[in-house]
Amino acid sequence: MSNHAEYFQSWPKGTEAELKASALSSIQLFFEEYNLDESQDLLWQIMKHCFFNPSTALKVPERENLVSFYENLHQMILAASILHNTRISQQVWTT
């Protein structure tokens, strides 16, 4: 698990190739830590906690925003998984 300070870092800098390499590395590290099923399950657990925890009092606009964020993040994780698995498959076939 990463240090929480990493979440507050500034936008990455570098050439287009360096940024792409950094993005691919981040995706690879993510899926080495969490497979697709586990990542989607954890995302759902966060969502449930926000809605059903008695100490959480979200107003309707906040709930709507959270649901929208969940749906979009869920799709992004799925898309990243597809790209990651495609990249891994291509590496296996070319090595």
Automatic annotation (TrEMBL):
Query: Superkingdom of the source?
Result: Bacteria
Name of the protein: Uncharacterized protein
